Amino acid sequence: QVQLVESGGGSVQAGGSLRLSCTVSGATLSGRCMGWFRQAQGKEREGVASLDWAGSTTYADSVKGRFTISRDNANNILYLQMVSLEPDDTAMYYCAAAIDRWSQSCWVEADFGGWGQGIQVTVSA
Questions:
Q1: Are strands 119-124 and 10-13 parallel, antiparallel or unpaired?
Q2: Is 73 within 8 Å of 29 (Cβ atoms)?
Q3: 3-class secondary structure for the chain?
Q4: pLDDT tens string 81-116
Q5: CA–CA dist 30, 14 (Å, integer)
Q6: How far is it, in rounded angstroms, from Cα 118 to Cα 96?
Q7: Count of alpha carbons within 13 Å of 117, Cβ hemisphere only?
Q8: Which of 15, 27, 75, 110 is the most exposed place for a label (fewest CB within 10 A)?
Q9: Contact by Cβ (8 Å): 42, 74
Q10: Which distant-in-sequence residues (6+ apart) come within 8 Å of 108 by Cβ?
Q11: Which residues have a Cβ under 8 Å from the Cβ of 25 and sit 6 or more positions away?
Q12: Quick one: pLDDT at residue 113?
């Protein structure tokens, strides 16, 4: 029932910017833990950023100061603003949502039950 659709990916030069969007259908974004994950070729999927229902954010050390997670509750959209992109940011990026609202944990993969199909981000040197 819950659908998440990512958009805004693509290819950019190092130092460039992209904003990923995740449109959520079939669930209320308000009060729900949301996150972004990524998986580079040959590597495990890792958490990038999360935003819980109380407004608390968590970022991977590798993206702190460069990525910003935010949400538009009225329009059910989750964003990931990415600036100063680096080649190591190249990965498939996934939007994720907790199945239940008001969840107490919002970081590890097990905290999320709904996943988007993923969208590719490629950063060239």
A1: parallel
A2: yes
A3: CCEEEEECCEEEECCCCEEEEEEEECCCCCCCCEEEEEECCCCCCEEEEEECCCCCEEECCCCCCCEEEEEEHHHCEEEEEECCCCHHHCEEEEEEECCCCCCCCCCCHHHCCEECCCEEEEEEC
A4: 999 999 999 999 999 999 888 888 999 999 999 999
A5: 34
A6: 10
A7: 6
A8: 110
A9: no
A10: 47
A11: 2, 3, 4, 5, 76
A12: 93
Q: Which amino acid is at 21?
A: S
- In the numeric block, which tokens belong to residue 106? 């919002």
Q: Is the pLDDT of residue 2 over 90?
A: no
The terminus-to-terminus CA distance of the chain in angstroms comes to 40
Cα–Cα dist 57/61, whole Å: 13
Rg of the chain, C-alpha, whole Å: 13
Which residue has 């603003």 as its token pair? 81
